[in-house]
Amino acid sequence: xxxxxxKFVDAIGIDMRLLGMIxxxxxxxxxxxxxxxxxxxxxxNLFNLSVQTASVAVMATGMVFVIVTRHIDLSVGAxxxxxxxxxxxxxxxxxxxxxxxxxxxxxxITVIVGILLGALIGAFQGWIIGYLAVPAFIVTLxxxxxxxxxxxxxxxxxxxxxxxxTFRLLGGGSSGTLGDTLSWAFGIFATVAALIMMVQSRRRxxxxxxxxxxxxxxxxLGGIATFLITGFVMIMNAYPLPKGAxxxxxxxxxxxxxxxxxxxxxxxxxxxxxxxAIGVMMTIIATRTRFGRYIFATGGNPDAAELSGINTRLLTxxxxxxxxxxxxxxxxxxxxxxGSVGNDLGTLDELRTIAAVVIGGTALSGGIGTIHGAxxxxxxMQSLQSGMAMVGVDAPLQSIxxxxxxxxxxxxxxxxxxxxxx
Amino acid sequence: MNKQTPLIELKNIELAFGGVKxxxxxxxxxxxxxxxxxxxxxxxxxxTLVKVLSGAYQADSGEIYVNGERAIIKxxxxxxxxxxxxxxxxxxxxxxxxxxxxxxxxxxxxxxxGFVDDDAMEAATRKIMGRLNPxxxxxxxxxxxxxxxxxxxxxxxxxxxxxxxxLIMDEPTAALGPQETEMVAELINQLKAxxxxxxxxxxxxxxxxxxxxxxxxxxxxxxxxxERVEDVTDDEILAMIILGKNPEKKS
Lengths: 422, 251
Known about the structure:
Largest interface: A-B, 31 and 32 residues
Shape of chain A: globular
Helix content of chain B: 25-40%
Low-confidence stretches of chain A: none
Radius of gyration of chain B: 19 Å
CATH architecture of the domain at 8-94 and 165-243 in chain B: 3-Layer(aba) Sandwich
Number of helices of chain B: 8
Mean pLDDT of chain A: 92
Oligomer: heterodimer
Distance between the termini of chain A: 25 Å
Mean pLDDT of chain B: 88
Strand content of chain B: 15-25%
Shape of chain B: globular
CATH class of the domain at 8-94 and 165-243 in chain B: Alpha Beta
Order of helices and strands of chain A: HHHHHHHHHHHHHHHHH
Number of strands of chain A: 0
Structural class of chain A: mainly alpha
Largest sheet of chain B: 6 strands, mixed
């Protein structure tokens, strides 16, 4: 039995660690669902979970590259706060003066400025790390203090609210979703894209005369992908808008609301679409570009990378610039979700991000890590936190549990790696 | 033979690390189709000298000539543009990547969209490995999972794949068994026949006597002397290494 399972897994080509993570996540969900009497695995809770995970998940994808190259970034939470503050003042105080309140381009300008600012801050920190050879731990620890302080300075500590109406959609409130039709379109698009990629990869390998995976394994993998995507869309569509939002929706679309109410689906939240898009983009960067290859080579053996002609200093700058840009995206999601920017936005997010990445199988010793692992790690962290809140675990006990789980997960990973001889 | 322009000429190379002269006014040269052995104790400066040539270090003073023309080598990328390839003593492999990724590291094959083409690289790796080390089969495992000899063959393959003109081998057989050592020796003779110039660093005097045309001996960062292999005995070489004493010329 055990042997045939291993054979099955090998043939499909999923690594055991990914399978273990998914297993842990499912176990966590089932346990919480049992303890809360069926309140955890509801469309409503899963929708909220997906939205709450988004901001940290986006940063986690960037943190994978940072940690793979044996660095660390402790400044992401503070940077998120600072960038969100700048974007908040820009869209609330500055842009409306020139463009008029509620102008269509306000959110676009805000997001672009935020991402550029994030990339700039990241590149600056990366330059200190790469070219001046100050350890990343110190540079970003300094950054944590600097950017948190700078965030306070933007408005002397005042909270900025409310943010631009269109900008708000990026945070995935009741109107910041795709709705049922678009969600299905998105699901079908994702399924078709996944299947096409599998077929193409098979053709490419056949062209070079490599032994292909058995056909049944390809079908199994395609089936699993289709099932997961379809299931996700169905669950998100099964969560209806609340009454107030339905009324607004009906008014906007000239619909009559019948007495028993209307079932309008949320569908997939926009921040989740952003996470998935960034996840795909970062996976392509990691596995299919020279930049990604050099990141992993440098993490595996910095000297070898240098001797192979890779400019590892410039690489460090690029990695941190990318991290900064992703922090800006996370800042957009976090501030749009709240509809306001407080001075403490993003506090402790650096630790949540690092924990997600490490639980997701990225080794702090460098060279090993995956984007999808980090995203699943973020979902595990968030599930743990929301689940405990739902069960009614005391706040201090919550952080104790999260801390213990983090250490335990990494220990398991080390044991697994030793056994697998990696 | 010495009438032609040398492939490589290192002139008066000096390099110091914090006051210690690791390489002190050393001049050596290398002709096409020739193997020059670099001998000396640990810390004699052999590895440091060739690292100047491979771009890992930069000399404090001195000049490098490639085919008679002044060459500026500031980093490993520059060295590669002069077709200088190096097999490092440490092998310099990224342990977490597979053989193909290591072989093409820094020179990946990309498709028309600029994405790395792993399948093409694996196919090329299979092809050249089939020639150099037919027993090699682990193409999809990270090189950390390979044996010492297999890792060595990855490093060697990487150096010879990209049309090297000048090859630097730093202890290429240190980690190998007798059979694999024999394979490396064969490879060296084959490369020599192809007109490639090779610097061979080794501790094994027999290796050197067998494979090299000339030997240069270093001691404490200085060049003791350069001799043709047929002009000296093993004992005379040992005297050069240990005592820093040049053999008496029998004129």
